[in-house]
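step=encode ok
step=design start
structure_in=
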């Protein structure tokens, strides 16, 4: 009976971590669907509207190391309370302002508080997990369906009400969840834990340094592809799937949602692969497969575009369980939150400029062909870098050699 509070706490922690992953990915997809309406309402070009979220996207990554450090040194549960409440407040604020400047500032506030989740929530998940790849795959599923839920909810709310409702309603839900989570923490039902349920033999210092240098390149590449693809999909679907979407925002949002729902579901499979096979090769194969898919996506339309986009996004996000497992494998456990924070500077901060690339390139060329060609080259760079990751079979001998 003594262990029951710990078991309950672990289950609640995993549940809120998974829910938090979905919530952390709401604000950008909501905005990208709402952007289709904002272009007309604000009398701006597609590229000029997309610029409004750049500060929020950059803060989403750049603020992550500080959030991770605070989670390591202060409280992961306290930081998660701030995540739920702050993100909810930012979304509601975005729906209540009117000018481009104020929308950009409100999105920046949302991105700042949303930055808490990945370094804190994933480190929290890894601490409780026994099969890390599978746990990260399930968690990745919730993160993967987050954009899908956001897209379809935004489309419905814009269709029934207006773009403001697309931000205010989800924000209110997050505020309610934040209150419930904070109550569970203060009542002792969710307990702070700093011990891994399944400790692992640490890697050698040489492999640790080598892995993080390589991962710095590959994580940046993953982030650029993800960040540039996310705003491109609603726009390219609205232009090239007219017969399927009935030329409406709701139709576009439904197809975007389908892409991210399928991609999210495949993360469970990807997580099991990460537990079963060497992480290096699972990770590299994901990049190899993206190269041809990205290269041809810019030339397609209709059903063929939808199918290729679905596979392309699925593989891109399917690399994440292996990637997060690699970070957990090579990061010291006492600094894992900070390590994930540094990862998300690259994955969502610096790579957030991929959004700017998408908007400006579209305004310059009037099409998405060269965007997808550039992204295919980015995937090729990540493939080449991945070859340099340490081989897991050699880790035990490397540690022995050091001793």
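sequence_out=
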């Amino acid at each position: 009976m003594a262990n029951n509070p710990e078991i309950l706490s672990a289950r609640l922690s995993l549940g809120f971590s998974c829910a938090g992953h979905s919530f952390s990915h709401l604000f950008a997809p909501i905005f990208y669907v709402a952007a289709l309406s904002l272009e007309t309402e604000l009398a701006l070009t597609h590229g000029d509207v997309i610029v409004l979220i750049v500060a929020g996207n950059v803060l989403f990554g750049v603020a992550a190391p500080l959030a991770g450090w605070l989670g390591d040194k202060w409280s992961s549960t306290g930081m998660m309370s701030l995540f739920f409440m702050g993100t909810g407040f930012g979304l509601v604020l975005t729906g209540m302002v009117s000018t481009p400047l104020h929308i950009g500032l409100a999105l920046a506030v949302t991105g700042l508080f949303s930055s808490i989740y990945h370094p804190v929530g994933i480190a929290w998940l890894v601490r409780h997990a026994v099969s890390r790849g599978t746990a990260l795959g399930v968690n990745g599923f919730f993160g993967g369906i987050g954009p899908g839920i956001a897209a379809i909810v935004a489309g419905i709310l814009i269709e029934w009400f207006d773009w403001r409702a697309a931000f205010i309603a989800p924000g209110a839900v997050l505020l309610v969840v934040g209150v419930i989570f904070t109550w569970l923490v203060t009542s002792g039902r969710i307990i702070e834990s700093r011990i891994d349920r399944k400790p692992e033999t640490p890697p050698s210092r040489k492999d640790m340094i080598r892995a993080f240098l390589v991962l710095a390149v590959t994580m940046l590449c993953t982030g650029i592809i993800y960040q540039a693809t996310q705003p491109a999909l609603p726009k390219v679907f609205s232009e090239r799937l007219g017969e399927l979407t009935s030329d409406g925002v709701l139709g576009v949002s439904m197809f975007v949602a389908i892409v991210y729902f399928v991609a999210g579901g495949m993360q469970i499979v990807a997580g099991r692969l990460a537990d079963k096979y060497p992480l290096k090769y699972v990770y590299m194969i994901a990049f190899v497969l993206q190269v041809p898919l990205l290269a041809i996506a810019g030339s397609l339309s209709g059903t063929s575009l939808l199918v290729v986009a679905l596979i392309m996004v699925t593989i891109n996000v399917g690399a994440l369980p292996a990637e997060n497992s690699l970070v957990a494998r090579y990061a010291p456990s006492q600094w894992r939150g900070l390590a994930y924070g540094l990862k998300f500077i690259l994955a969502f901060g610096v790579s957030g400029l991929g959004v700017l690339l998408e908007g400006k390139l579209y305004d310059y060329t009037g099409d998405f062909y060269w965007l997808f060609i550039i992204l295919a080259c980015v995937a090729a760079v990540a493939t080449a870098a991945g070859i340099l990751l340490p081989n897991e079979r050699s880790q035990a001998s490397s540690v022995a050699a050091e001793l």
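step=design ok
step=annotate ok -> Confidence is low (pLDDT under 50) at residues 394-403.
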